[in-house]
Design goal:
Layout lengths: L3 H41 L11 E6 L5 H13 L4 E8 L2 E8 L2 E9 L1 H11 L4 E4 L7 H9 L5 E4 L26 H5 L2 H9 L1 E2 L2 E2 L6 H14 L2 E4 L2 H10 L7 E3 L25 E8 L6 H13 L6 E8 L10 E2 L8 H7 L4 E4 L9 H9 L3 E5 L3 H5 L5 E8 L8 H22 L1
Parallel strand pairs: 1-2, 1-5, 5-6, 6-9, 9-10, 11-12, 11-14, 12-13, 14-15, 15-16
Antiparallel strand pairs: 2-3, 3-4, 7-8
Helix pairs in contact: 3-4, 4-7, 9-13
Length: about 425
Protein backbone atom coordinates (compact mmCIF):
# COMPACT_ATOMS: atom_id res chain seq x y z
CA UNK A 1 0.00 0.00 0.00
CA UNK A 2 1.42 3.43 -1.04
CA UNK A 3 1.93 5.75 1.89
CA UNK A 4 0.86 9.38 1.91
CA UNK A 5 4.48 10.61 1.72
CA UNK A 6 5.20 8.50 -1.38
CA UNK A 7 2.03 9.86 -3.02
CA UNK A 8 3.23 13.39 -2.33
CA UNK A 9 6.61 12.64 -3.89
CA UNK A 10 4.91 11.23 -7.01
CA UNK A 11 2.64 14.29 -7.26
CA UNK A 12 5.59 16.67 -6.86
CA UNK A 13 7.54 14.75 -9.51
CA UNK A 14 4.61 14.97 -11.95
CA UNK A 15 4.25 18.70 -11.29
CA UNK A 16 7.98 19.21 -11.86
CA UNK A 17 7.91 17.15 -15.08
CA UNK A 18 4.95 19.11 -16.46
CA UNK A 19 6.57 22.39 -15.47
CA UNK A 20 9.83 21.48 -17.22
CA UNK A 21 7.93 20.38 -20.32
CA UNK A 22 5.96 23.66 -20.29
CA UNK A 23 9.19 25.66 -19.98
CA UNK A 24 10.82 23.73 -22.84
CA UNK A 25 7.80 24.44 -25.07
CA UNK A 26 7.86 28.13 -24.09
CA UNK A 27 11.59 28.27 -24.76
CA UNK A 28 11.12 26.62 -28.18
CA UNK A 29 8.28 29.00 -29.10
CA UNK A 30 10.28 32.02 -27.93
CA UNK A 31 13.26 30.86 -29.96
CA UNK A 32 11.04 30.36 -33.02
CA UNK A 33 9.54 33.82 -32.50
CA UNK A 34 13.03 35.35 -32.41
CA UNK A 35 14.08 33.40 -35.53
CA UNK A 36 11.02 34.65 -37.40
CA UNK A 37 11.56 38.28 -36.31
CA UNK A 38 15.18 38.18 -37.51
CA UNK A 39 14.02 36.61 -40.77
CA UNK A 40 11.32 39.27 -41.24
CA UNK A 41 13.87 42.03 -40.72
CA UNK A 42 16.22 40.46 -43.27
CA UNK A 43 13.45 39.91 -45.80
CA UNK A 44 12.48 43.60 -45.59
CA UNK A 45 16.02 44.46 -46.72
CA UNK A 46 15.66 42.46 -49.92
CA UNK A 47 14.51 45.29 -52.23
CA UNK A 48 17.59 47.26 -51.14
CA UNK A 49 20.20 44.57 -51.87
CA UNK A 50 21.11 46.17 -55.16
CA UNK A 51 19.67 43.24 -57.11
CA UNK A 52 16.17 44.52 -57.73
CA UNK A 53 16.36 44.23 -61.50
CA UNK A 54 18.20 40.93 -61.63
CA UNK A 55 16.69 37.51 -62.21
CA UNK A 56 15.85 35.85 -58.91
CA UNK A 57 15.90 32.09 -58.37
CA UNK A 58 14.70 30.03 -55.41
CA UNK A 59 16.60 26.75 -54.89
CA UNK A 60 15.62 23.82 -52.64
CA UNK A 61 18.47 21.62 -51.47
CA UNK A 62 19.24 19.36 -48.52
CA UNK A 63 21.22 21.08 -45.73
CA UNK A 64 24.13 18.63 -45.44
CA UNK A 65 24.06 17.46 -49.03
CA UNK A 66 27.15 16.03 -50.69
CA UNK A 67 28.08 14.64 -54.08
CA UNK A 68 26.26 15.55 -57.28
CA UNK A 69 23.57 17.74 -55.72
CA UNK A 70 26.05 19.91 -53.88
CA UNK A 71 28.27 20.19 -56.95
CA UNK A 72 25.29 21.02 -59.18
CA UNK A 73 24.08 23.79 -56.86
CA UNK A 74 27.56 25.27 -56.50
CA UNK A 75 28.21 25.14 -60.26
CA UNK A 76 24.82 26.67 -61.05
CA UNK A 77 25.54 29.71 -58.86
CA UNK A 78 29.17 30.10 -59.96
CA UNK A 79 28.22 30.00 -63.66
CA UNK A 80 25.46 32.61 -63.20
CA UNK A 81 26.87 35.05 -60.60
CA UNK A 82 24.69 38.00 -61.61
CA UNK A 83 21.48 36.32 -60.50
CA UNK A 84 20.04 36.50 -57.01
CA UNK A 85 19.51 33.12 -55.31
CA UNK A 86 17.44 32.18 -52.31
CA UNK A 87 18.68 28.80 -51.13
CA UNK A 88 16.24 26.89 -48.93
CA UNK A 89 18.20 24.27 -46.99
CA UNK A 90 16.21 21.64 -45.10
CA UNK A 91 16.45 21.66 -41.31
CA UNK A 92 14.21 18.83 -40.10
CA UNK A 93 10.65 20.18 -40.54
CA UNK A 94 12.01 23.72 -41.03
CA UNK A 95 14.38 25.49 -43.43
CA UNK A 96 17.45 27.70 -43.25
CA UNK A 97 17.36 30.45 -45.86
CA UNK A 98 20.52 31.77 -47.51
CA UNK A 99 20.56 34.59 -50.06
CA UNK A 100 23.39 34.75 -52.62
CA UNK A 101 23.92 37.85 -54.72
CA UNK A 102 26.78 39.81 -56.33
CA UNK A 103 29.24 37.03 -55.48
CA UNK A 104 28.47 37.00 -51.75
CA UNK A 105 26.04 35.19 -49.50
CA UNK A 106 24.16 36.01 -46.30
CA UNK A 107 21.93 34.04 -43.96
CA UNK A 108 18.42 35.46 -44.20
CA UNK A 109 16.95 33.17 -41.55
CA UNK A 110 17.26 29.87 -39.71
CA UNK A 111 14.69 27.37 -38.43
CA UNK A 112 11.85 28.93 -40.47
CA UNK A 113 8.61 27.22 -41.46
CA UNK A 114 9.08 26.39 -45.17
CA UNK A 115 5.62 27.57 -46.29
CA UNK A 116 6.10 30.89 -44.47
CA UNK A 117 9.59 31.22 -45.99
CA UNK A 118 8.31 30.58 -49.52
CA UNK A 119 5.38 32.98 -49.25
CA UNK A 120 7.40 35.78 -47.62
CA UNK A 121 10.09 35.67 -50.31
CA UNK A 122 7.51 35.61 -53.11
CA UNK A 123 5.81 38.60 -51.48
CA UNK A 124 9.08 40.54 -51.04
CA UNK A 125 10.57 39.87 -54.48
CA UNK A 126 9.54 38.80 -57.95
CA UNK A 127 10.77 35.22 -58.26
CA UNK A 128 11.56 34.25 -61.86
CA UNK A 129 12.17 30.57 -61.32
CA UNK A 130 12.12 27.84 -58.68
CA UNK A 131 14.72 25.06 -58.88
CA UNK A 132 14.27 21.80 -56.99
CA UNK A 133 17.74 20.31 -56.57
CA UNK A 134 16.91 18.00 -53.67
CA UNK A 135 13.88 17.44 -51.40
CA UNK A 136 15.41 14.85 -49.08
CA UNK A 137 14.74 15.85 -45.46
CA UNK A 138 11.92 18.20 -46.49
CA UNK A 139 8.26 17.55 -45.72
CA UNK A 140 7.38 16.57 -49.30
CA UNK A 141 3.60 17.10 -49.13
CA UNK A 142 4.01 20.48 -47.40
CA UNK A 143 6.47 21.78 -49.98
CA UNK A 144 4.44 20.48 -52.93
CA UNK A 145 1.20 22.01 -51.62
CA UNK A 146 2.94 25.37 -51.14
CA UNK A 147 4.52 25.37 -54.61
CA UNK A 148 1.27 24.31 -56.30
CA UNK A 149 -0.36 27.63 -55.37
CA UNK A 150 2.44 29.77 -56.82
CA UNK A 151 2.38 30.63 -60.51
CA UNK A 152 6.16 30.46 -60.98
CA UNK A 153 8.08 28.17 -63.37
CA UNK A 154 9.46 25.15 -61.52
CA UNK A 155 12.44 23.12 -62.72
CA UNK A 156 13.01 19.75 -61.04
CA UNK A 157 16.50 18.20 -61.17
CA UNK A 158 16.57 14.41 -60.75
CA UNK A 159 19.78 13.48 -58.90
CA UNK A 160 18.37 10.26 -57.38
CA UNK A 161 15.09 8.34 -57.05
CA UNK A 162 13.79 9.99 -53.89
CA UNK A 163 10.61 11.28 -55.59
CA UNK A 164 9.79 7.69 -56.58
CA UNK A 165 10.59 6.12 -53.21
CA UNK A 166 12.00 7.57 -49.95
CA UNK A 167 14.63 4.82 -49.85
CA UNK A 168 16.44 7.15 -52.33
CA UNK A 169 18.47 4.40 -54.05
CA UNK A 170 15.64 1.95 -54.87
CA UNK A 171 17.27 -0.85 -52.90
CA UNK A 172 15.18 -3.91 -52.04
CA UNK A 173 15.39 -6.18 -48.97
CA UNK A 174 18.43 -7.91 -50.53
CA UNK A 175 20.23 -4.55 -50.75
CA UNK A 176 20.05 -4.74 -54.52
CA UNK A 177 18.66 -2.26 -57.04
CA UNK A 178 14.97 -3.19 -57.37
CA UNK A 179 14.63 -1.80 -60.93
CA UNK A 180 11.22 -0.39 -59.93
CA UNK A 181 8.48 -3.07 -60.07
CA UNK A 182 5.71 -2.31 -62.58
CA UNK A 183 3.05 -3.09 -59.96
CA UNK A 184 2.99 -0.63 -57.04
CA UNK A 185 1.57 -3.45 -54.88
CA UNK A 186 5.09 -4.89 -54.85
CA UNK A 187 6.37 -1.57 -53.50
CA UNK A 188 3.73 -1.64 -50.74
CA UNK A 189 5.12 -4.99 -49.57
CA UNK A 190 8.77 -3.87 -49.75
CA UNK A 191 10.52 -4.79 -46.49
CA UNK A 192 13.32 -2.29 -47.18
CA UNK A 193 10.82 0.57 -47.38
CA UNK A 194 8.91 -0.56 -44.28
CA UNK A 195 12.06 -0.79 -42.17
CA UNK A 196 13.36 2.54 -43.42
CA UNK A 197 10.15 4.44 -42.75
CA UNK A 198 9.64 2.80 -39.37
CA UNK A 199 13.05 4.01 -38.22
CA UNK A 200 12.53 7.38 -39.92
CA UNK A 201 15.95 6.97 -41.40
CA UNK A 202 16.77 6.12 -45.00
CA UNK A 203 20.47 5.22 -45.19
CA UNK A 204 21.32 8.38 -43.17
CA UNK A 205 18.75 10.46 -45.08
CA UNK A 206 15.72 11.54 -43.05
CA UNK A 207 12.22 11.21 -44.50
CA UNK A 208 9.48 13.50 -43.24
CA UNK A 209 5.75 12.90 -43.02
CA UNK A 210 5.59 9.56 -44.86
CA UNK A 211 2.18 7.88 -44.92
CA UNK A 212 2.29 5.30 -47.69
CA UNK A 213 4.00 4.83 -51.04
CA UNK A 214 0.83 5.64 -53.02
CA UNK A 215 0.42 9.03 -51.32
CA UNK A 216 4.14 9.64 -51.69
CA UNK A 217 3.99 9.20 -55.47
CA UNK A 218 0.80 11.23 -55.69
CA UNK A 219 2.63 14.16 -54.08
CA UNK A 220 5.55 13.71 -56.49
CA UNK A 221 3.11 13.54 -59.41
CA UNK A 222 1.60 16.87 -58.30
CA UNK A 223 5.09 18.40 -58.27
CA UNK A 224 5.85 17.10 -61.77
CA UNK A 225 2.47 18.33 -63.02
CA UNK A 226 3.23 21.83 -61.68
CA UNK A 227 6.76 21.84 -63.12
CA UNK A 228 7.80 23.37 -66.43
CA UNK A 229 10.97 21.27 -66.84
CA UNK A 230 12.28 17.97 -65.48
CA UNK A 231 16.05 17.89 -65.84
CA UNK A 232 18.06 14.65 -66.07
CA UNK A 233 21.69 13.73 -66.75
CA UNK A 234 21.18 10.19 -68.07
CA UNK A 235 18.82 8.03 -70.10
CA UNK A 236 18.40 5.51 -67.27
CA UNK A 237 17.07 8.27 -65.01
CA UNK A 238 14.53 9.39 -67.61
CA UNK A 239 13.40 5.83 -68.35
CA UNK A 240 12.83 4.88 -64.70
CA UNK A 241 10.97 8.10 -63.85
CA UNK A 242 8.78 7.77 -66.95
CA UNK A 243 7.70 4.34 -65.73
CA UNK A 244 6.54 5.90 -62.46
CA UNK A 245 5.13 9.25 -63.65
CA UNK A 246 3.31 10.04 -66.88
CA UNK A 247 3.33 13.69 -65.74
CA UNK A 248 6.94 14.20 -66.88
CA UNK A 249 6.13 13.35 -70.50
CA UNK A 250 7.16 16.22 -72.78
CA UNK A 251 9.00 18.04 -69.96
CA UNK A 252 12.27 16.12 -69.81
CA UNK A 253 15.39 18.12 -70.65
CA UNK A 254 18.92 16.68 -70.74
CA UNK A 255 21.55 18.71 -68.94
CA UNK A 256 25.26 18.01 -68.77
CA UNK A 257 26.07 20.81 -66.33
CA UNK A 258 27.47 18.23 -63.93
CA UNK A 259 30.29 17.63 -66.41
CA UNK A 260 31.49 21.15 -65.58
CA UNK A 261 31.98 20.16 -61.92
CA UNK A 262 35.13 18.25 -62.87
CA UNK A 263 36.44 20.51 -65.65
CA UNK A 264 39.01 22.19 -63.42
CA UNK A 265 40.53 18.96 -62.13
CA UNK A 266 44.28 18.88 -62.60
CA UNK A 267 45.24 16.26 -65.19
CA UNK A 268 47.81 13.51 -64.65
CA UNK A 269 51.27 14.37 -65.93
CA UNK A 270 51.77 13.23 -69.51
CA UNK A 271 54.75 11.13 -68.36
CA UNK A 272 52.77 9.24 -65.72
CA UNK A 273 52.61 5.50 -66.40
CA UNK A 274 49.89 3.87 -64.24
CA UNK A 275 51.29 0.42 -64.97
CA UNK A 276 54.98 1.11 -64.35
CA UNK A 277 54.97 -1.11 -61.25
CA UNK A 278 54.49 -4.86 -61.31
CA UNK A 279 51.70 -4.69 -58.71
CA UNK A 280 48.35 -3.40 -60.01
CA UNK A 281 47.12 -0.81 -57.52
CA UNK A 282 43.32 -0.44 -57.60
CA UNK A 283 41.82 2.61 -55.87
CA UNK A 284 38.13 2.84 -55.09
CA UNK A 285 37.00 6.49 -55.35
CA UNK A 286 34.01 8.14 -53.69
CA UNK A 287 32.33 7.51 -50.35
CA UNK A 288 32.97 4.57 -48.05
CA UNK A 289 29.34 3.40 -47.81
CA UNK A 290 27.46 0.30 -48.91
CA UNK A 291 25.63 1.98 -51.78
CA UNK A 292 28.91 3.08 -53.36
CA UNK A 293 30.40 -0.42 -53.14
CA UNK A 294 32.20 -0.56 -49.79
CA UNK A 295 31.13 -4.15 -49.05
CA UNK A 296 32.12 -5.42 -52.49
CA UNK A 297 35.51 -3.72 -52.23
CA UNK A 298 36.10 -5.40 -48.86
CA UNK A 299 35.16 -8.74 -50.45
CA UNK A 300 37.72 -8.05 -53.18
CA UNK A 301 40.36 -7.92 -50.43
CA UNK A 302 39.04 -11.28 -49.19
CA UNK A 303 39.56 -12.74 -52.68
CA UNK A 304 43.10 -11.32 -52.79
CA UNK A 305 43.92 -12.80 -49.37
CA UNK A 306 42.39 -16.20 -50.18
CA UNK A 307 44.26 -16.53 -53.48
CA UNK A 308 47.62 -15.07 -52.38
CA UNK A 309 47.40 -12.25 -54.93
CA UNK A 310 49.07 -9.55 -52.80
CA UNK A 311 52.04 -9.30 -55.14
CA UNK A 312 49.76 -9.08 -58.16
CA UNK A 313 47.22 -6.53 -56.91
CA UNK A 314 46.63 -4.19 -53.96
CA UNK A 315 43.62 -2.12 -52.88
CA UNK A 316 43.38 1.48 -51.67
CA UNK A 317 40.65 4.07 -51.18
CA UNK A 318 40.40 7.76 -52.08
CA UNK A 319 37.50 9.82 -50.71
CA UNK A 320 35.43 10.23 -47.59
CA UNK A 321 35.54 7.41 -45.03
CA UNK A 322 34.43 7.23 -41.40
CA UNK A 323 37.42 5.73 -39.53
CA UNK A 324 35.03 3.66 -37.37
CA UNK A 325 33.86 1.66 -40.37
CA UNK A 326 36.96 1.60 -42.55
CA UNK A 327 38.64 -1.73 -43.33
CA UNK A 328 42.24 -1.40 -42.10
CA UNK A 329 43.46 -4.02 -44.60
CA UNK A 330 42.86 -1.43 -47.33
CA UNK A 331 45.18 1.57 -47.63
CA UNK A 332 43.42 4.89 -47.08
CA UNK A 333 44.89 7.63 -49.30
CA UNK A 334 42.73 10.49 -47.99
CA UNK A 335 40.08 12.88 -49.29
CA UNK A 336 40.52 14.69 -52.58
CA UNK A 337 39.61 17.82 -54.48
CA UNK A 338 40.26 19.25 -57.95
CA UNK A 339 43.90 19.96 -57.13
CA UNK A 340 44.81 16.84 -55.17
CA UNK A 341 43.21 13.86 -56.94
CA UNK A 342 45.91 13.61 -59.62
CA UNK A 343 48.62 14.19 -56.98
CA UNK A 344 47.28 11.37 -54.80
CA UNK A 345 47.14 9.03 -57.80
CA UNK A 346 50.69 9.79 -58.94
CA UNK A 347 52.30 9.85 -55.49
CA UNK A 348 50.80 6.44 -54.63
CA UNK A 349 51.34 4.83 -58.06
CA UNK A 350 47.63 4.09 -58.56
CA UNK A 351 47.04 1.98 -61.67
CA UNK A 352 43.26 1.96 -61.97
CA UNK A 353 40.36 3.67 -60.24
CA UNK A 354 37.18 1.74 -59.50
CA UNK A 355 33.56 2.74 -58.81
CA UNK A 356 31.93 -0.50 -57.55
CA UNK A 357 28.57 1.15 -56.90
CA UNK A 358 25.71 -1.33 -56.46
CA UNK A 359 23.02 1.34 -56.96
CA UNK A 360 21.70 2.74 -60.20
CA UNK A 361 23.65 6.00 -60.40
CA UNK A 362 21.94 8.94 -62.11
CA UNK A 363 25.34 10.48 -62.90
CA UNK A 364 28.22 9.81 -60.42
CA UNK A 365 30.54 12.76 -59.85
CA UNK A 366 33.39 10.52 -58.65
CA UNK A 367 33.47 8.68 -61.98
CA UNK A 368 33.59 11.97 -63.88
CA UNK A 369 36.44 13.19 -61.66
CA UNK A 370 38.47 10.11 -62.58
CA UNK A 371 37.72 10.55 -66.30
CA UNK A 372 38.82 14.19 -66.16
CA UNK A 373 42.21 13.48 -64.53
CA UNK A 374 42.87 10.74 -67.12
CA UNK A 375 43.25 7.62 -64.95
CA UNK A 376 41.95 4.24 -66.27
CA UNK A 377 38.52 3.58 -64.74
CA UNK A 378 36.41 0.47 -64.04
CA UNK A 379 32.61 0.72 -63.57
CA UNK A 380 29.80 -1.82 -63.32
CA UNK A 381 27.19 -2.27 -66.02
CA UNK A 382 24.57 -0.56 -63.85
CA UNK A 383 23.05 2.91 -64.15
CA UNK A 384 24.35 6.07 -65.80
CA UNK A 385 28.08 5.35 -65.57
CA UNK A 386 28.03 2.83 -68.38
CA UNK A 387 26.37 5.45 -70.63
CA UNK A 388 29.28 7.85 -70.24
CA UNK A 389 32.24 5.47 -70.49
CA UNK A 390 31.05 3.28 -73.37
CA UNK A 391 33.35 4.86 -75.97
CA UNK A 392 36.22 5.74 -73.65
CA UNK A 393 39.22 3.49 -74.29
CA UNK A 394 40.63 4.21 -70.82
CA UNK A 395 37.49 2.86 -69.20
CA UNK A 396 36.13 -0.65 -68.80
CA UNK A 397 32.58 -1.75 -68.04
CA UNK A 398 32.15 -4.98 -66.07
CA UNK A 399 29.43 -6.14 -68.45
CA UNK A 400 28.59 -9.28 -66.43
CA UNK A 401 27.17 -7.10 -63.64
CA UNK A 402 23.89 -5.55 -64.77
CA UNK A 403 20.63 -4.50 -63.11
CA UNK A 404 19.41 -8.08 -63.66
CA UNK A 405 22.48 -10.20 -62.83
CA UNK A 406 23.26 -8.49 -59.50
CA UNK A 407 19.91 -9.76 -58.20
CA UNK A 408 21.18 -13.31 -57.80
CA UNK A 409 24.94 -12.79 -57.33
CA UNK A 410 26.42 -12.50 -53.85
CA UNK A 411 28.87 -9.74 -52.87
CA UNK A 412 31.78 -12.19 -52.93
CA UNK A 413 30.81 -13.43 -56.41
CA UNK A 414 30.61 -9.86 -57.70
CA UNK A 415 33.94 -9.04 -56.04
CA UNK A 416 35.60 -12.02 -57.76
CA UNK A 417 34.23 -10.98 -61.17
CA UNK A 418 35.33 -7.33 -60.73
CA UNK A 419 38.80 -8.26 -59.50
CA UNK A 420 39.57 -10.67 -62.33
CA UNK A 421 38.20 -8.35 -65.05
CA UNK A 422 40.22 -5.46 -63.57
CA UNK A 423 43.43 -7.51 -63.62
CA UNK A 424 42.72 -8.62 -67.19
CA UNK A 425 42.01 -5.03 -68.29
CA UNK A 426 45.21 -3.81 -66.56
CA UNK A 427 47.34 -6.45 -68.28
CA UNK A 428 45.91 -5.52 -71.69
CA UNK A 429 46.43 -1.81 -71.01
CA UNK A 430 50.00 -2.46 -69.89
CA UNK A 431 50.81 -4.06 -73.24
CA UNK A 432 49.35 -1.10 -75.17
CA UNK A 433 51.53 1.50 -73.42
Amino acid sequence: MITKSIKNIIIKYQILSHTLLYLRIKKYRLRQFIYVQIYKRNILKLPHLGVGSQETVMIFVMKHVTGGTNSATKTLIENNPLKCYFIMRSHKELVDVEVCYEGRSETAGTHIDPVYAINSIVKARRINKIIIQQLIDFNLSKIVNALETINIPIEVYLHDFFLICPTVFLLNEKNRFCNLPDDIKECKKCISLQLAVKSRNIKTKNVRNFHDIVTWRQNSAKLFKASSKVIVSSMITENIYKRAFSEISGKVVYSYELLKCSENFRKLDSTYNPFANKTIKIAMVGSWIYEKGKDIFEKMQNVIDANNLKETVSLSFIGYADPKYFDKRIEYLGKYNSETLSEIIMENNVSICLIPSVVCETFCIAAQDCIEVGIPLIVLGIGAMKERVTNNQKCHIVAQLTEDTIQYLTDIEMADIILHETIEFANKSRKNI
